[in-house]
Amino acid sequence: MLRYGLIGANGKMGREIESYFSSFGDVCVFKKDVGLIEEHDTPQVIIDFSSPDAVAETVAICEKFNSALVIGTTALDESHFEMLQNLSESVPVVQSYNFSTGIAILKKMLKEYSHYFDNWDGAMVEIHHNQKKDAPSGTAKMLKSAMNRGLPISSIRVGGVFGEHTVIFSNAGETIEITHRALSRRAFTIGVRNAALFALGKQNGYYTYDDVLESLNEIL
Ligand code: NAD
């Protein structure tokens, strides 16, 4: 059972995280959103799915409670990463632009195999719901940097799509397409809980979901 705090508690991810975590008997003891602050107990871990504007305050909250941080908020800039790195000297911080285990595996595959496609054309298409604020998605940028090559990214914002990323490699005679599709926000909330359990086993340090992936057998 986890005692956790939620930043962005009223958002789509915040509500989904609370619903999923409650199925394990975890208790949300601290909640923050615009115009909302609730504090019932000391959280072991703070979970932030809100907005880049919240990062400085989230860091201060983790320092106050000496709690771990799992942060999935996207569109962070250098100054945010610096704050998170500084925090990670005293508590564990797990940051990822995508907490789905499937994306972590896809990233690993691309890192290992994309060099075979060095002389092929490459492209990526990412599709998300029409309320998503950033484009290209943080995940698309993460997958691109795993491949370490130039690659155009097309972003499509339609309807209620949870998140779809297709990587395309093509030469004159053949095409390979690899697609990851999040079927619901559950794709992320499972990973967020994995990351929270992972963080509780650490003293401090800066981690990503790649580190969580490598420890899944020990956590679960
Ligand atoms: P959302 O707009 O539904 O929810 C965001 C919530 O944060 C809102 O309730 C908003 O009021 C609140 N908020 C905004 N500023 C705040 C502040 N300063 N302090 C506290 N709360 C604040 O968005 P969402 O779909 O839930 O996504 C939230 C974030 O998580 C986005 O950055 C999104 O891109 C990211 N996201 C990441 C992953 C991942 O796996 N890393 C998955 C889905 C979404």
Number of domains: 2
CATH homologous superfamily label of the largest domain: NAD(P)-binding Rossmann-like Domain
Report the count of strand segments: 11
Q: What's the architecture of the largest domain, going by CATH?
A: 3-Layer(aba) Sandwich
- What is the top-level CATH class of the largest domain? Alpha Beta
Write down the oligomeric state: single chain
Order of helices and strands: EHEEEHEHEHEHEEEHEHH
Q: Given the helix and strand composition, which structural class is it? A: alpha/beta
The portion of residues assigned to helices is 25-40%
Q: Give unreliable regions as ranges.
A: none
Give the overall shape, derived from the CA principal axes: globular
Summarize the biggest pleated sheet: 7 strands, mixed
Query: What is the CA-atom radius of gyration, in angstroms?
Result: 18 Å
Give your account of this protein's structure:
Helix content is 36%, strand content 26%. Strands 3-2-1-4-5-6-11 form a seven-stranded mixed sheet, with helices on both faces. The chain is an alpha/beta fold and 220 residues long. The protein contains eight helices and eleven strands. It has helices at 12-22, 55-65, 78-87, 101-113, 138-147, 186-200, 209-214, 216-219; strands at residues 3-7, 27-33, 36-39, 45-48, 68-71, 92-95, 121-128, 153-157, 164-170, 175-181, 205-207. The protein binds nicotinamide-adenine-dinucleotide. Residues 7-8, 10-14, 32-34, 49-51, 53-54, 72-74, 96-99, 188 line the site of nicotinamide-adenine-dinucleotide.
